[in-house]
Amino acid sequence: MSLRHALLGLLVDRTASGYDLLKLFDTSLANVWPATQSQIYAELNKLADTGLITIAAEGPRGRKQYALTDDGLAELRRWLTETEPQRNVRSEVLLRVFFLGVVSREQAQSYLADLATRFATEENALRELENAVEWDESDLSLYGRIALEYGLRFNTMRREWAEWAADQVK
Amino acid sequence: MSLRHALLGLLVDRTASGYDLLKLFDTSLANVWPATQSQIYAELNKLADTGLITIAAEGPRGRKQYALTDDGLAELRRWLTETEPQRNVRSEVLLRVFFLGVVSREQAQSYLADLATRFATEENALRELENAVEWDESDLSLYGRIALEYGLRFNTMRREWAEWAADQVK
DNA sequence: ACTCTACATTCCAACATTGACATGTCGCGA
DNA sequence: TCGCGACATGTCAATGTTGGAATGTAGAGT
Questions:
Q1: I need a surface site. Which of A129, A138, B18, B80 has the fewest CB within 10 A?
Q2: Using one digit for the tens of pLDDT, what is the confidence trace for B22-69?
Q3: Nearest CB partner across the interface for A90, out of B34, B94, B105
Q4: CB contact, 8 Å: A133 with chain B?
Q5: Please, which residues have CB within 8 angstroms of residue A159's CB and are 6 or more apart in sequence?
Q6: Mutant choice from B96, B107, B133 vs A, greatest count of A C-beta within 10 A
Q7: A143 in contact with B, Cβ within 8 Å
Q8: Contact between B88 and A89 using a beta-carbon 8 Å cutoff
């Protein structure tokens, strides 16, 4: 499961509460590995059970600080270097395109045009995000920049494809 | 659930056995919506329970022919025109890039270079597939061609990005 | 004082997905 | 005729994922 390793990765250079991690998932990892609140808290407790993170409670209830252990960092490194990434291409948008032949040409055209607009909007949002981020020279920001670049290229590719596709169906 | 609608879509212009459908998933839908054998047979029985497909058994055991009903086609059309596609971007490859800062620069470089090679291989395979397919003028092949074009652009984009990324880390 | 929003965690039911195991048919070649 | 590989379906346990409900704290504004 990648959620486990995503949490370990986020805890590498900071300790955080579950809520902090949830925000990080909603912002930086939203387009990479989305996760819900239920999943995150459940997984954090499992990670603590196996000793990959520690939980420091500040009182009987309320905020808890989650921190990576040496075992946790080792597990993250092991995952990155010794296991194969599974490529899991699942696109509902594309699945629909496969079957557009069953609706009218007008409806298909409308669907593709709508995709083009939607992708253009997402691309603009991502460009603004990129412009807003301040980069420093650390390795972490280097890899963050590389990952963001992927997102930007992906969005641009999708927009161009959707525009081309809408044109094909005219 | 998209699996349900993927099955309906595959049954639009043919009847098929579960095994046929499994093969179709492994070939044409592998890079769009992967599914396992267990999932497919279970879902086919559920679809028959709700009247969206019919099952014609050729004997007490052995092959069964699954066929779309009018309700099934209507449900497929409804899904295509009245529901919003959920975009579900989950990429383990990209998740790993986010966290490459925790391994050595050599290992990160090696990972990105490996990705570039892998993506190039996939891109070549897809190009060959595209060249092998004979296109006719029906709408179905139009949408099939559009979907294939997406796959090709996606693979090209990934390869170019991975090459660029590997270069950044040198 | 009141209320609203953000912060913060837990639990649960339902559904989706994976991978393995079990069972059996059919045709072909050694 | 024996065994193999392709065809064909069914079932199970484990795990992953979603979405919602429940509960509570803390601070800021009215």
A1: A138
A2: 999 998 898 899 999 999 999 999 999 999 999 998 776 789 999 999
A3: B34
A4: no
A5: A116, A119, A120, A123
A6: B96
A7: yes
A8: no
> What is the ipTM for the molecules in this complex?
0.89
Q: For the ranges A56-65, A145-154, B114-123, which has the lowest average pLDDT?
A: A56-65
- A168 and B80 in contact by Cβ < 8 A? no
CA distances from A106 to A110, A115, A158, B46 (A): 6, 14, 21, 32
Concatenated DSSP letters for B123-148? HHHHHHHHHHPPP-SSHHHHHHHHHH
pLDDT reported for residue A126: 83
Tell me: pLDDT of A99 over 90.
yes
Strand partners, A54: A67
Mean predicted lDDT score pLDDT of chain B: 90
Q: What is the pLDDT of residue B24?
A: 94
Tell me the nt nearest to B39, Cα to C1'. Answer: C17
Domains of chain A, each with CATH number or no CATH: 2-82 (1.10.10.10), 92-169 (no CATH)
Question: CA of B93, closest CA in chain A: separation in Å?
Answer: 6
- Over residues A65-90, mean pLDDT: 92
Residue given tokens 């990429």 in the structure block = B91
d(CA B48, CA B19): 16
Q: What is the model's pLDDT at position A139?
A: 63
Would you state the structure tokens that stand for residue A157, as one six-digit string?
A: 């590719």
Q: How far is the CA of B27 from the C1' of C28 (A)?
A: 26
Give the closest residue to A111 by CA, choosing from A66, A73, A168. A168
